[in-house]
Design brief:
The protein contains 13 helices and 15 strands. The strands form 4 sheets. The protein has a 5-stranded mixed sheet with strand order 5-4-3-6-10, sandwiched between helices. A 5-stranded mixed sheet has the order 13-12-11-14-15. A 3-stranded antiparallel sheet has the order 7-8-9. It has helices at residues 2-17, 22-29, 33-45, 112-128, 168-172, 185-200, 259-263, 265-272, 287-298, 302-326, 341-353, 356-359, 372-393; strands at 49-55, 64-69, 75-81, 85-92, 97-104, 139-144, 147-148, 154-157, 166-167, 179-184, 209-215, 219-226, 232-235, 330-334, 365-368. The mean pLDDT is 90. Helix 8 runs antiparallel to helix 10 (302-326). It is of the alpha/beta class and 405 residues long.
């Protein structure tokens, strides 16, 4: 077990630092130079690592040899299930994107069986495009909106399928023996932001916690904590369905008073047009409709201003509660809703500024990230490869599967 742990530390170091020499890996991991040399030699023999061109040293002696993940060792399928499309990506062991395509989902899709049939066909197509078979995949990592089981790749509730439960491991076992994982996509957005934070701030302390707020048809929240040895612990609490007000407006989940029912796109639309709060929410609201309401709000139309102000204060109060519990240092806002951030930020800031943390000088920094899709892919790819490193490669339970480049 100690040997496996040391192998995992070396692999984690390479994910964190990029291609590195023995001395750099030893300093980062705390392992002796002899241990790092033995482990990298072992991993190189197994085809996990490859040597890169030696780097000329600044002093005397031989140039340092760098080691990095061997791209062809294996590959993972990374799949994003969005309301309007499914995006399929193939990533090699070095983290390079090899292939990507997407397929549009039918409007008002409600039945699980046709969706699963198309998903299986998409996975087979992803494999065939790189001269592989679906059975060659060692891991398939899916992301989606909705409520996900914490212990299995099972979707418990989603805006599209409501309470229809989908066990992705069982469904996909017919075409592949791969490990199947399912996460709420905003957890991976938080994962990606934490990776960037650590990459650009080498002195960032362990234990630092950040949050990502995704604005759109649904409201998503991801929280990530920096751990030792490059690890990041990320999760997505059911923030969207946290109660904002007792006996409040009807949510798509069937409850009343959820954050999403006021701050989601359909909540803003319902408030702007004065629709009764118990009206069954729309599954999908075109961005063009929200754009019109936003334009009216910016022009000073009272009903439109009120809709966005109500949404922003709902989000601000929910984030204030979150910050009181978790003490986040940064909040990144992303998703389709960033186009309305000028209308939403004032209310969010007002609520956060009233918290005890803010009065003590711990007001979280707020950033905006426009490309949520890239964030999700970045976080999912990194998590998938780190997971393989720790639980399959470090334990010698994975053989090479050559990925077409």
């Amino acid at each position: 077990m100690l040997r496996h742990q040391n192998r995992a530390h070396v692999l984690a170091g390479l994910r964190e630092l990029g291609p590195s020499a023995h001395t750099t890996l030893g300093e980062w991991s705390g392992l002796s130079s002899a241990s790092v040399s033995a482990i990298t030699a072992e991993l190189e023999e197994e085809g996990v690592l490859q040597r890169q061109e030696p780097v000329a040293g600044t002093g005397r002696g031989r140039p340092r040899v760098l080691f990095g993940p061997a791209p062809s060792f294996t590959c993972v399928a990374v799949i994003r299930i969005a309301t309007e499309l499914v995006e399929y990506s193939l990533v090699d062991y070095a983290g390079t994107l090899l292939d990507r395509f997407h397929e549009t989902r039918p409007a008002n899709e409600k039945k699980v069986a046709p969706f699963i049939k198309r998903l299986k066909a998409g996975i087979k197509r992803l494999a065939e495009r790189s001269e592989l078979k679906a059975s060659d995949f060692v891991m398939i990592s899916l992301t989606t909106k909705g409520v996900v089981d914490q212990h299995s790749p099972t979707l418990l509730w989603s805006p599209v399928f409501d309470d229809q439960v989908i066990d992705f491991e069982q469904e996909l076992s017919e075409i592949t023996p791969a490990l199947v994982y399912l996460h709420n996509e905003t957890a991976f957005s938080a994962q990606a932001i934490s990776q960037r934070l650590r990459r650009y701030d080498t002195d960032v302390e362990n234990g630092r916690r950040i949050a990502v707020l995704s604005l759109g048809h649904s409201i998503g929240l991801g929280v990530a904590t920096l751990k030792s040895h490059g690890r990041i612990q990320a999760f997505a609490p059911p923030f969207s369905h946290m109660m904002d007000q007792r006996e409040g407006p009807l949510c798509r989940c069937g409850a009343h008073g959820c954050v999403e029912a006021t701050a989601g796109f359909y909540g803003i639309l319902r408030t702007a047009f004065g629709v009764p709060a118990d009206t069954l929410p729309a599954r999908f609201v075109p961005l063009t409709e929200l754009d019109k309401i936003a334009a009216s709000a910016r022009a000073g139309v009272h009903t439109a201003e009120y809709a966005f102000r109500t949404a922003s204060e709902c989000l601000g109060l929910a984030l204030a509660r979150l910050n009181s519990l978790l003490n986040v240092s940064e909040i990144t806002i992303t998703g389709y809703g960033v186009r309305y951030v000028d209308l939403l930020l004032p209310g969010i800031n007002r609520c956060l500024e009233q918290t005890m943390q803010a009065r003590q000088g711990r007001m979280p920094l707020i950033h905006v990230e426009t490309d949520e899709t890239h964030l999700v892919h970045e976080g999912n790819s990194h998590w998938s490869l780190a997971n393989l490193d720790e639980f399959r490669v470090a334990t010698r339970s994975l053989s090479s599967v050559k990925a077409a480049g």
